Amino acid sequence: xxxxxxxxxxxxxxxxxxxxxxxxxxxxxxxxxxxxxxxxxxxxxxxxxxxxxxxxxxxxxxxxxxxxxxxxxxxxxxxxxxxxxxxxxxxxxxxxxxxxxxxxxxxxxxxxxxxxxxxxxxxxxxxxxxxxxxxxxxxxxxxxxxxxxxxxxxxxxxxxxxxxxxxxxxxxxxxxxxxxxxxxxxxxxxxxxxxxxx
Length: 198
What we know:
Pathway: Protein modification; protein glycosylation. GO terms for molecular function: ditrans,polycis-polyprenyl diphosphate synthase [(2E,6E)-farnesyl diphosphate specific] activity. This protein has helices spanning 30-43, 56-59, 61-71, 108-120, 127-138, 179-191; strands at residues 18-23, 47-52, 77-81, 96-102, 145-149, 167-170. By secondary structure, it is α/β, with parallel strands linked by helices. The chain has one domain (14-104, 140-191): Undecaprenyl pyrophosphate synthetase (3-Layer(aba) Sandwich). It has a 6-stranded parallel sheet. α1 (30-43) links the parallel β1 and β2. It is globular and about 55 Å long.
């Protein structure tokens, strides 16, 4: 019987519900990114997003979807989110993961659009109303873990209100992004203690 390499990970006290990968100045291949989707599915991560500050990855999303779909098993499902169409689906049998590719347009321009729409609705603008609008548009919970691919710690313009409680871990790119490295990142995350301002 083949041993599942992710079995020990499933026993960790803390697994991220939403993993985000911030694509910085260190390039990751389609294959590496597709692996992250599959590994996340196997480890019980429900949401994964990729933040593409240049917009290049977003333009190649269809090709990326093909790479991921070729790696999927029959009873596993990826629910893709598009900025134009809500992708909420139910009724899947088997494992399921939600995937979204974010760009800078999901940041400050979204807040500006929220303010414009609230003005058009003749509502008093409050932080709560803007927050509700943004959450409705974003559709994902705030990320628990952000893996950033850069020599420097930067968010590259990631929507800041989403990162209030996010743990950041650097993916050092002197070696390929392997399954073992992914598992080590999850172990590091599991040991992080959120102090929430204390």
